[in-house]
Amino acid sequence: MAEVLRQLFLLLLAAKIGDEVFKRLGQPPVIGEILAGVIVGPAVLGWYEINAETMLFAEIGVVLLLFQVGVETRLHDLLRVGPTALAVGALGVVLPFAGGFALAGVLGSPLSVAVFLAAALTATSVGITSGALRDLGALNARSGRVILGAAVIDDVLAMLILAFASGLAAGNVALDELGLLVVVALLFIGIVLIGGTRILARRRSLLTDPVFAATPFLPGMIIMLGLAALATQIGLAAIIGAFLAGMVVGESSERHALEAEVAPVAAFFTPFFFGFIGAQVDLVGLADIGVILLVVGVTVVAVATKFIGAFFGAIRLGRAEATLIGWGMVPRGEVGIVVAGLGLQVGAIEGELYTVVVAMAVITTLIVPPLLPMLVRGASTSSESDARPTSGPTPGVEDDADGMPNARRDHRGPT
Amino acid sequence: MAEVLRQLFLLLLAAKIGDEVFKRLGQPPVIGEILAGVIVGPAVLGWYEINAETMLFAEIGVVLLLFQVGVETRLHDLLRVGPTALAVGALGVVLPFAGGFALAGVLGSPLSVAVFLAAALTATSVGITSGALRDLGALNARSGRVILGAAVIDDVLAMLILAFASGLAAGNVALDELGLLVVVALLFIGIVLIGGTRILARRRSLLTDPVFAATPFLPGMIIMLGLAALATQIGLAAIIGAFLAGMVVGESSERHALEAEVAPVAAFFTPFFFGFIGAQVDLVGLADIGVILLVVGVTVVAVATKFIGAFFGAIRLGRAEATLIGWGMVPRGEVGIVVAGLGLQVGAIEGELYTVVVAMAVITTLIVPPLLPMLVRGASTSSESDARPTSGPTPGVEDDADGMPNARRDHRGPT
Question: What is the ipTM score, two decimals?
Fold first, then answer.
């Protein structure tokens, strides 16, 4: 226990020093936290070793981040951007998947490797982009909602690809089982979203009716853990369950009390998530020119296919917003790492390709936040000149009565 | 990860249902949370299995609870009750230790068993009492401070006894090493408390000077984890480090922002601690009349010796306050369980005695909170009739400018 406390201390301290340095340099603090993880992790200093306990904190960190994002997202706003999100999600999966296959063909990899590489390229880490967009107060703009909706669709498709890849590695692919998986996943999302928000919209005090709950905070945490667990059980990512839980709980009458209480809990946990991502980097494995070239190749394919797919999916919103959305879908983050780890575990890919995919996941994660402020400004300027009040973080599009800006206040909640 | 999320969900849900039921019955919610842990744990339903991940949440839960208590405690208030706390701590260790030895003599146990039994009887779990006193808004009364101060002294002595017991089990007891341990522990406590509070008292904005910190919350969490880790490193309990960290950080100028942000984090984690304590109960091991008699005997000795020792240590404050303090020191909670587990690990005690000690720890924990409201009323009435304004939770004794009551608000923080 002493060792775990020491590691949690170290990771939190390092992440916050990274945050401090990057804020002072005017750069995205998320990047500072990830690089701090690289430095204290096995790649450089080796003070922090990856273990089950700190992994749990990292996982709860991203679960809380998406829960928080869910609380700030309303269902009808998400449904309004539904068709665009569907196009972005689908094209943003198909192109990277095809790119991964093509790349594996060039490398002469067998089919099982090709499928895992393709699966790792399709994954989108919505945690990174939504964290950075919250920092910019741009999460509730139309483009932020498209990215969130596309991420949900993306995850359903990624689950399908991963089940297919795992089946292929195990030697049997049952198409009827794959179909069942998708139906169950869509039913889960539909029932939770429509059913959950309906129930809470009808009785907005439901979460504060119990004697133990003066605010919806603890009931919300219970629902978050429950839906995150249920999502993983049916093959979806835990963060999708947490995001849905946040959207449902956000219907409560005491939503602002809830937000004020979720903020410090999320601020405590999320640095573990970002630091943990950095700690995955293996610099020793990258000390080979062949591997470096492979990383460059895989990363270029990953960025280009995802950006182009998502861009064309969102093109009807105009070039500026489509560029923001395409760029926002690029980070692979923890999802890419998890997929590669799964491939390693079932024996489909070997150590070197794992290192390459992790490096690609971290690089795609690091390059996105620095460009977001510019793209957000571009998207909001262009939509203003189009006289389209539904894009850009203007109070007019908020469905909140108070029009409170949803900026993340640097991870810190009530000040 | 799916399994861990499921278990966290289950434990939190169960604890909050226990909380709800006990609040509706007008009973202490802490007991409801512990009993919920008994029910979902291995003893009854077996839905929750003890594992490293949920243990970590339990540990962080009690660490946060003591941090929160530390934030609400001021150094000069603790020093003011210093001599009484010293007497309570010392007598509250000596008597149970002697009682444990006598009991082992009656049972005919060898010396190594006797020392571990005695060590388990001396342990005090300040988490339970301070949690219950916070619920009653009585933590800042003089008696609450005596209990907190005595718990710190208690832990230093318990560490000494445990080091002695472990040395005995390993076959060598080095007296000079024991002396060094105590010196290091006292230096740690002294330097952190006096040095830390001095530094912060001189520059109250220190924790909010970094750009990343608008409130002392995240710097406070870093210091809490660091001092908790350091405390365990030198042989003290993690909660002692967390308590000291809270006292230091509580000197910050932004203390109320800090309290508002710590509250939800503590409210999220502490149910795992109480539920976890309940889950330790092994009803199968207790299904033997001999074992039950042993539990009764050990529990009676544990309650009587701790109560009498602490009572006489505090007798100069009058009988009513001495009764409250004596009773408040009775819970053995997680500390007793940890000591017994250590004895099991080094082979000094066997499975049956372990079960007995755990049962004693849980029983002493369950019996304390129900009587506390009555004893708090008694102590505050008697001290009012003595015209002693320094006892009882009256605004006059608060060093806070605002005299805000420190009630725990049912785990919930800002409402």
Answer: 0.80
